[in-house]
Design goal:
The complex is a heterotrimer.
Chain A (H helix, E strand, L loop, with lengths): L1 H30 L6 H19 L3 H27 L5 H22 L15 E3 L4 E3 H23 L1 H11 L1 H6 L4 H26 L7 H15 L4 H21 L4 H15 L11
Antiparallel strand pairs in A: 1-2
Chain B lengths: L1 E5 L3 H19 L6 H26 L8 H16 L9 H19 L6 H17 L11 E2 L2 H5 L4 H8 L3 H29 L1 H11 L1 H6 L4 H27 L1 E2 L1 H4 L2 H15 L5 H17 L4 H17 L3 H10 L9 E5 L17
Antiparallel strand pairs in B: 1-4, 2-3
Helix pairs in contact in B: 2-8, 2-11, 2-13, 2-14, 3-4, 3-5, 3-11, 4-5, 4-11, 7-8, 8-11, 13-14, 13-16, 14-16
Chain C lengths: L2 E10 L2 E11 L4 E6 L5 H9 L9 E3 L2 E2 L5 H6 L2 E4 L11 H8 L11 H7 L1 H5 L10 H13 L5 E5 L7 H9 L1 H6 L3 E6 L2 H7 L2 E6 L2 E7 L5 H9 L4
Parallel strand pairs in C: 3-8, 3-9, 6-7, 7-8
Antiparallel strand pairs in C: 1-2, 1-4, 4-5, 9-10
The chains are: A mainly alpha, B mainly alpha, C alpha/beta.
Chain lengths: 287, 361, 234
């Protein structure tokens, strides 16, 4: 029985990792850019939500609603004024710029918010749980998982049902031909990064409500996100969810055996998948 | 008109002589320099070595690794294991660090080379994390909290006694001098070895792989083998450097030995600011880095924040780094590795006048 | 003139591909540009569309300099391109490939999904499959339809018969009169001289990055074309 409980907790934790990963996957899918500051941007968004809740005494969900458009604009500007200038055939410049951004963000947050652990207060939701018969699960993990599914459905709707999504896919296929359709690839990239930052805000909301965070934990979130993306197979958002679940289950199982093994177990699951399925579980046919 | 391929330039030859003089001065420096200067130079030299190795990986090999701390850490821990578990002399245990890093580099390359382009970077980072977590389980070496080199091991390190009597210093200072000499040797040998590699077959092969993997394949350059070779060489020397750093520090913990900030972020910034893909870059970069560190060290996080922003600015506005800016203006190459065609007069076998590169005059 | 190039030069790195090219296109007119492989025809179209940037004064649209504008802005001014090699988007279905052609700019005009499907009925049957799953000829129809969806003022067709079977080329060229009749000014770049002349009002011949002949299509002699095409004295 304890194992069922562990696995269910792991699956639900996977929802959080899928939220971390969705933004990374989105940006990589459209412009082949790996943003090494992705984890730090999640932490940044968590601080933004915390700041809004504490300053205005708002509910964290309302605070996230306010933070999301701000993050969109920041992401848009980051892409428009910085990353677009270094995108090209050589992968080195964008990697190094986002790595510099990662270090700068971490230390900027350290100055602004100190190294103390913080948490976004979520009121009674923090401890509320529901009995599902075999297992009892917290409302918060359940809500995280449901949100991850909603975000993936939402992103897929944007991708496959809207003109913007059509432009995303066309630009991802061939930016030069897309420009012959009147689409400005760099404008599309900026919108995509803005959208990724909205997803980052949602991830930050749940990260901050579920556990303590401080300015230094961003890189580890980047790594979980990255592992989920690679396990799932590049370009598949449902695969990313599956990847998140695998990491989550591996971590809770590892922790059940020995609490020190939690993180290690997640990484090892990733390496095993990389060993047996180098292209991930659900690789995209094209590309 | 016949042609001859040359890489030598006059500035290059002058720089070579200057380098030898500099190394000799470096070796006699402890006779006059105070201890804290020797310690600073030790830090600079080890960072320079790490930076040259990362530059070889990323700048020449196109392998952007964010996981070099894995090799620093495993090298340091292997040295500690040699001392604590097998009673070796710390200095003699340094080669263990290189070997351990080499052994770790094989599975690392095996996994990370499965990841395309940018994902390679995070892949190396994951492996560094895995190594850190595994080492933290090594209870004999202090587990997660770490341990120190035992007093009896540090007190009779080979050569320390001789240095004590030579310079008339205390034991701790003599240890610093020994570590400094080793760091100087390692840095000089690393730079010389990379320079030699780049001027020979590997340099041509790397250039071919970087410019066009497919075309390189068609002329018989095996990109995979080249990348493996570069990765293993860099890992081995990074492991040696890690072991040496912790001989001097004498205290280790997984978080410090596998620190992404200390062993990879600083190193990347040094290379980027100095100029990536050039041997001169890391040298200039480490000087700039040290000056910045001395001026901004009291400002804590502001220092790293500034460093990150400078790196971004350099990538945006001067992607070839400070050295790139300087050599664009002056045409200066201290370490000429570019091959140039010189026309040779077939009669005399001499090159006709005024056909050399811009830095020949 | 709706579109003009003036002393247009272009280069790929060190390699110069165009040496002072002057061509002009009047409203409603169809111009053919012929020439052998490497004559600079496709480079000319890429320069006009802004895929290759030029100096501002070298390309004029309705008298305004557009040479330095990025490709998407040139397209939004009403200059649509059928690129060499079709270049359909593999992630988009046939219908999505068509829709994206008129997504950013959609002027008033005869062309929409229904009229493109009417022009190429086979596309309606295959509208939901990925664009790249079609045969070469059908892909070419999608590429033409995609360019028409914005109701362009100027339509640039780059080597639309390249690599297609003669019977397929005939089907595609059969659509040209209706496209012409819808009002767009057209530049057709071709290696197939006969096809090009059959639809064109005027013809330019290019060789080694220069225009070697400019003449009305109806009266130009075979010998003149031959000389301009191969560079032999007439």
């Amino acid at each position: 029985m304890i194992w069922v409980d562990t696995i269910v907790q792991g699956i639900l934790l996977g929802g959080l990792y899928a939220l971390f990963a969705a933004g990374l996957s989105l940006v990589f899918g459209i412009m082949r850019l790996v943003n090494l500051a992705h984890g730090d941007l999640i932490i940044f968004a968590a601080f933004a939500i915390l700041l809004i809740t504490s300053t205005f005494g708002l509910n964290p969900f309302v605070a996230a609603l306010i933070a999301a458009p701000v993050m969109f604009v920041l992401g848009w500007a980051l892409q428009r004024f910085v990353l677009n200038r270094v995108l090209g055939k050589d992968i080195l410049p964008p990697l190094l710029v986002t790595f510099g951004l990662s270090v700068a963000l971490q230390n900027g947050m350290l100055e602004a918010f100190s190294a103390d652990s913080q948490r976004i207060p979520a009121g009674p939701l923090e401890s509320a749980s529901v009995d599902l018969g075999i297992v009892t699960v917290g409302w918060m993990p359940l809500l995280t998982f449901a949100t991850a599914i909603a975000v993936i459905i939402g992103l897929n709707q944007i991708f496959y049902r809207t003109a913007l999504g059509r432009a995303f896919r066309a630009t991802s296929d061939d930016p030069v031909t897309a420009s012959l359709m009147g689409i400005a690839p760099k404008g599309i990239f900026a919108i995509a990064t803005g959208l990724a930052m909205v997803v980052v805000t949602i991830a930050a909301l749940y990260l901050g409500m579920r556990a303590n965070f401080d300015p230094s934990i961003g890189p580890a979130r980047l790594i979980y996100a990255f592992e989920a993306v690679i396990i799932g197979g590049l370009g598949s958002l449902w695969g990313t969810l599956a990847g998140g679940i695998i990491i989550g289950v591996a971590q809770t199982l590892g922790a059940a055996i020995n609490p020190e093994w939690q993180i290690l177990a997640g990484h090892i699951a990733f390496l095993v998948v990389l060993l047996v399925r180098p292209r991930g579980l659900f690789p995209r046919a094209v590309d | 008109m016949a042609y001859r391929v040359v890489t030598r330039t006059r500035t290059g030859s002058i720089a070579g002589v200057a380098a030898i003089v500099l190394i000799i001065v470096g070796f006699v420096l402890p006779a006059v320099a105070p201890r804290d200067m020797i310690q600073d130079l030790f830090t600079i030299l080890t960072l320079l070595t790490l930076a040259q190795l990362w530059n070889l990986l990323a700048g020449y090999g196109g392998l952007v690794s964010v996981g070099q701390q894995a090799f620093v850490g495993i090298g340091a821990y292997a040295m500690f294991a040699g001392v604590i578990l097998w009673g070796m002399d710390p200095v003699l245990a340094i080669p263990l660090g290189g070997l351990a890093a080499l052994v770790l580099a094989v599975p690392t390359a095996f996994f990370a080379f499965r990841l395309q382009g940018a994902y390679f970077a995070i892949g190396t980072w994951v492996i560094a994390e895995v190594t850190r977590l595994l080492v933290a389980q090594w209870k004999a070496l202090g587990g997660g909290t770490g341990t120190s080199l035992p007093r009896e091991a540090t007190s009779d390190i080979i050569g320390v006694e001789a240095i004590r009597s030579l310079f008339g210093v205390r034991e701790a200072a003599a240890r610093d001098i020994l570590a400094y000499w080793l760091a100087l040797t390692l840095a000089a040998l690393t730079i010389a070895a990379i320079y030699w590699l780049l001027r020979n077959r590997l340099g041509l092969a790397l250039a071919a792989v970087r410019d066009n993997t497919e075309a390189a394949k068609s002329v018989g350059v095996d990109a995979r083998r080249i990348k493996w070779a570069v990765f293993l060489i860099a890992a081995f020397v990074t492991g040696l450097t890690g072991a040496l750093i912790y001989v001097q520090t004498a205290r280790i913990s997984p978080d410090a030995a596998f620190s992404v900030t200390d062993w990879t972020a600083y190193v990347i910034f040094i290379v980027v600011i100095g100029g990536i893909g050039r041997l001169e870059g890391p040298i200039l970069g480490v000087i700039v880095f040290y000056v910045l560190q001395s001026t901004l060290a009291d400002y804590g996080a502001w220092y790293l924040l500034t460093l990150g922003l400078i790196a971004i600015a350099v990538m945006l506005f001067a992607p070839r780094g400070l050295w790139g800016l300087m050599s664009e203006r002056t045409g200066l190459h201290l370490f000429p590795v570019q091959r140039r065609l010189l026309a040779i007069d077939p009669m005399s076998g001499q090159q006709p006048p005024k056909r050399g590169g811009p830095d020949d005059q | 003139m709706i579109l003009e190039t003036k002393a247009l030069t272009a280069a790929y790195g060190q390699f110069r591909a165009l040496f002072g090219v002057d061509v002009a296109l009047a409203a409603g007119e169809t111009v053919a540009i012929i020439g052998a492989n490497g004559a600079g025809k496709s480079t000319l179209l890429r320069s006009i569309t802004g895929v290759i940037r030029n100096e501002a004064g070298m390309v004029l649209h309705r008298g305004e300099a557009i040479g330095a504008l990025p490709a998407e802005v040139v397209m939004q001014r009403g200059i649509a391109m059928v690129p060499e090699g079709r270049k359909l988007f593999p992630s988009l279905s046939v219908e999505e490939n068509l829709l994206i052609g008129g997504q950013v700019r959609r002027a008033a005009g005869p062309w929409n999904l229904a009229s493109v499907y009417e022009l190429f009925p086979i596309l309606r049957e295959r509208r939901l499959v990925p664009g790249t799953a079609l045969s070469g000829g059908q892909q070419q129809m999608v590429a033409i339809g995609r360019a028409l969806m914005s109701n362009p003022e100027v339509l640039l067709c780059d080597e639309i018969s390249l690599g297609l079977a003669p019977v397929v080329i005939r089907d595609i060229y059969a659509a040209m009169p209706r496209i012409k009749a819808s009002g767009a000014a057209i530049i057709v770049v071709e290696q197939d001289i006969g096809r090009a002349l059959s639809v064109a009002d005027r013809v330019y011949c290019m060789m080694e990055g220069r225009v070697t002949l400019a003449a009305p299509a109806a009266t130009v002699s075979r010998e003149a074309i031959h000389a301009a095409y191969f560079g032999e004295a007439a």
